[in-house]
Amino acid sequence: MLFCGIDLGSRNVKVAIMEHNKIIKTAAFDTINFYRNHAVKRNQQLYIDFSSLDIPNCDRVVSTGYGKLTVKLAGADAIAEIKAHYLGAVHQCGLDDFTLLDLGGQDSKIIKIAGGKMVDFVTNDKCAASSGRYLENMAGVLGINLEQLSKYYENPVELSSTCAVFGESELIGKIVEGYSMEELAAGVNYTIFKRIQPLLHKIGYNPLVFVGGVAKNTALTEILKKELGASVIIPLLPQYNGAIGCCVYAFNIQQSH
Amino acid sequence: MRKIGITTTVPSEIIFAAGAVPLDLNNIFITDPSPNHYVEIAELAGYPRNLCGWIKGIYGVAVENKIHEIVAATQGDCSNTHALMETLHLKGVQIIPFAFPYDRDRDMLMLQLNKFMNYMGVGWLEVDAWREKLQRIRRLVWELDRLTWESNQVTGFENHLWQVSCSDFNGDPEAFYHELKGFLKEVKMRKPLKEQVRLGFMGVPPIFTDLYQYIEKIGARVVFNEIQRQFTMPFEVRELVDQYLLYTYPYHAFARLEDLQIEIKKRQLDGIIHYTQSFCFRQIEDLIYREKINVPILTLEGDRPGLLDARSRMRIDAFVEMLR
Description:
heterodimer; A: alpha/beta; five-stranded mixed beta sheet; 8 helices; 13 strands; B: 324 residues; alpha/beta; four-stranded parallel beta sheet
């Protein structure tokens, strides 16, 4: 049996394929290209051309993500993002008690899991200042790519702006003051930590499982370890955690029948 | 008839006793077909973008509807009320200050009641007679509340609407009483509602217009509206001053907490939605409730009037899912 999980994110659409209880394939597509080239909307439903995406036919498809609320995927069940991430993380790391930190394109979510069950969560609200989009913007201002940006965490420049857009002009101001690229990049990574720190304190954070596109930022992982003194676990496929959670949901339904 | 605008629940007995009618400006604002235009009136006048939508709405309502007299809760409610009153004073509105003492001091509250009565030109005899009249209506609303959580025949929105309307009884207590009686008769014929998740709503009334309906659509129901219930003064006491001393809303978080703890247990709530306005000082109090309340809490924030936004819906979905 093949199960397909689709996470309709704001920046990327992530797909995971599960056979029995194992993930056998993953793929990511640019969100805009995905909707433009591989999907059509008919009768208020979104039909995906799986063959053009090189994705095998699956017995059950489950979707989640920002798009879930606006587009109904034809032939798929839809589940809440927080649920998808919780299921994905439990599957990926095999723990029963932990805090899940998901930093995506626009969203930040912190979910507390105790005894294998989700017991509390907080999310960012109407602001993308601690998201992947913010990192993309700031890397653009510094003229480097995301991979370079994610290397630096020492001697961070102090950035005080709490807005993803005004943050840019503040960063430009710091460039003018003559700080090095390393210090500026470290400052950018630290602002992400400062935004999520109060949320982590609200929920608790040891051990911390870190997923989402921003989990690729190794500097942030270092900052989390250093500042929180917590153990930080990054599962094998952090970016696909939501899509994997969808597969787990499909698998569980199949098992219960 | 003389109409007295109010910005929150104040002793309406005194207003009615003076032959005047209280007019809850919040209710006019939020039930308008396009409430956002009241917010825009305030922003055009210079009110900041990052300020509570309720305050801006009240300003717009008072200006557009030419309300001449307004009671201002100068203590025990939003501190933005001070500047709201000052800017309305600038527009020629007569301001009647009323302060709920922070320490719930009986003598101080008595002094406030006496000053308010003096202003309105009424004595205790008329005020007490009106208290009796209003209590008769409030008892019916308490019954409606019981029908919400105990016999499960009333929806969360109906519970919200009737209770929140007790601030001014829609300006016509007699009509309110008869309409309510008819409603209760109809409700008692209903089959009990059977939702999977029982929620409590705490905090100021939501600025979202579809919150209760959305919650019911996904298999949950609000069976406790904290502040709205307080607006119905759910206590049998002998004196007006005691009634407004027991009323928790204008005092500190701990008075509210005590009331909440009792009701969470009594109504068997699975979780609580703590609603606050964007930019409101009450957001700070969330940390007290999170520490002291031992059922799961979802903190929800609203800014301008309208339907729930996608993010809030996502959070409600996940919360209900978690409690199921």
